[in-house]
Write a structure and sequence with these properties.
By secondary structure, this protein is of the alpha/beta class. The protein has helices at 3-19, 23-26, 59-67, 70-86, 109-119, 132-145, 163-174, 190-199, 212-230, 235-247, 249-255, 259-265, 280-293, 307-316, 343-352, 371-380, 389-410, 419-430, 443-451, 458-466, 474-501; strands spanning 35-40, 44-45, 95-99, 102-107, 154-159, 267-270, 273-278, 327-333.
Length: 502
């Protein structure tokens, strides 16, 4: 028995011991008797009476029932691929019943069939409608899975002779009769699904490398959370936020893809940080219109298929969007300030806040940059964000490209590829031990490069040059430069320490 299995058994028996004290309330309480044991896959029999298909009589018929439909074949191969790449699900052990010298599956029929087919693809029978060539190709795909990772030969299983007791857990897992009044698995609601899509299994931050749709969902969730705080005393806005969680996450995420769209709505979103760039009243008007339109013919997943559709929608509601007069001097974090707070107190708080930098890279010195790199940096320092937003944004991308090349060249590393590839190599130099995303020194830059979206992605910086509809704003240029300044400084220090050490 594995140590994990032993722990499971001990916990189960301890739970049974403590629950026995409830007998005077609920009558006789019986804890099912079972063990967790490593069972050889070759000794396991598939269940011919599995509820997924009609009853059959042989093991060959069991396989045929699980693979008979084209959809089932795809599902089985997907399951096997997941097992090969991620392993078996540790949160749900198969349940087996002793049968002579072997064990019959009570729960986990598909998993056991997949493991058997991964070990020996010939157990997959000739399938209806499939030619010899198609069967050879299909079995070949199963055979290749053995090269991805070692195939488990034994599996920790719950072993029990109490079929009636095990049927209770199987029923709880596979049926959804009103979630069995809370005793069964309760599926996530729309908001829970959106949070998982946005933040990964732990919910504490998006995982580097997640697909772009997850980044979009993440921005939508972060914005709605910030709006709940900002308008905590506004029942109408809170109702609109709740409605957006139920039916508007995908659409809202599309609206928020581009940084300039977010600025038109009165906000910046950088990583998990949401900052307002306009007054409270202007923000409420824009958000009220946006959230009210979600799910209507004017704003749904079909009406904004491409980026230009979003721009068209924002142009159509321009009368409800903030104007230049509504913008504040420095973007402020999303906090739960009441909507009715006086403008006087708001202005007072902002005067005490640190003034944003007017020009990029004021104190940055790249001592190991080439002559051209240092010339670009010196020129950038003379530019004011408010007057030269496009120039600052474009030159920032040039500086990033030039200095990443300089660093890699100075350290004898590969310099080929584009800007994105060079910046990624530099990030690996700063985090050489491949630390998990939450421990990396510059997680926002990691995430932007992995997803290709957001103000800090190289793709977005390219757009300022190559796309006529991609507008620069002083806040975007400032966000990019302020995020890249410590990154560039860290690279300069790395080169200095490496050369000094050698």
């Amino acid at each position: 028995m594995t140590s994990d299995g032993a722990i499971c058994v001990r916990i189960r028996h301890q739970v049974g011991h403590h629950l026995s004290g409830l007998s005077h309330v609920q009558g006789r309480f019986s804890v099912p008797d079972y063990e967790v044991e490593p069972i050889p896959v070759s000794s396991v029999l598939l269940n011919p009476k599995n509820y997924r298909h009609r009853p059959v009589t042989s093991q060959d018929e069991c396989f045929l029932a699980l693979f008979s439909e084209p959809k089932d074949r795809d599902y089985m191969l997907n399951l096997a691929t997941d097992i090969a790449t991620r392993g078996l699900d540790p949160s749900s052990l198969p349940i087996v019943q002793p049968e002579g010298a072997r064990w019959r599956v009570l729960e986990g029929n598909r998993r056991m069939a997949a493991l058997k087919a991964m070990t020996n693809p010939d157990v997959i029978p000739e399938l209806p409608g499939a030619s010899d060539r198609q069967m050879k190709a299909y079995r070949g795909r199963w055979a290749k899975l053995g090269g991805v990772a070692p195939i488990p030969r034994t599996v920790d299983c719950v072993v029990t002779s109490d079929v009636e007791a095990s049927d209770h857990w199987i029923t709880m897992k596979h049926t959804n009769v009103g979630f069995h009044k809370g005793a069964g698995t309760i599926e996530w609601d729309a908001e829970g699904k959106a949070r998982h899509e946005a933040g990964g299994a732990t919910g504490d931050g998006r995982v580097a490398g997640r697909r772009a749709s997850s980044e979009q969902s993440g921005r939508a969730v972060d914005l709605l959370d910030a709006l709940r705080q900002q308008f905590a005393d506004d029942d109408e806005m809170l109702a609109l936020v709740d409605r957006a969680f139920k039916k508007g996450i995908t659409t809202l995420g599309r609206v928020l893809i581009r940084p300039e769209n977010r600025l038109r709505l009165g906000m910046q979103i950088d990583g998990r940080s949401v900052r307002w760039t306009v007054s409270d009243n202007a923000l409420r008007a824009a958000m009220h219109r946006l959230l009210s339109d979600l799910g209507t013919p004017e704003l749904n997943s079909r009406s904004i298929n491409v980026a230009d559709d979003v721009v068209g929608y924002l142009d159509a509601i321009a009368s409800d969007l903030p104007t230049s007069d509504d913008r504040v001097e420095a973007a402020h974090p999303a906090v739960g300030a009441p909507v009715g707070a006086s403008e006087r107190s708001t202005r007072s708080r902002r005067r005490k806040a640190p003034q944003p930098a007017r020009r990029p890279y004021g104190s940055l010195q790249l001592t190991h940059g080439s002559g051209k790199t240092r010339a670009v940096l010196a020129e950038m320092k003379t530019l004011a964000y408010k007057d030269y937003a496009y120039t600052c944004a474009i030159l920032n991308r040039v500086l990033l490209d030039l200095y990443s090349f300089d660093v890699l060249d100075a350290l004898g590393k590969k310099t080929g590829g584009g800007c994105n590839a060079r910046v990624q190599r530099c990030l690996h130099l700063l985090d050489p031990h491949n630390t998990k995303p939450t421990d990396r020194r510059f997680p926002h830059i990691w995430d932007a490069l992995a997803s290709g979206t957001g103000e800090l992605s190289v793709d977005s910086m390219h757009f300022f040059v190559h796309r006529h509809d991609y507008r620069a704003h002083p806040d975007i240029a400032r966000t990019q430069c302020e995020a890249h300044e410590p990154f560039l400084r860290a690279l300069d220090d790395l080169v200095e320490d490496t050369l000094r050490g050698s």
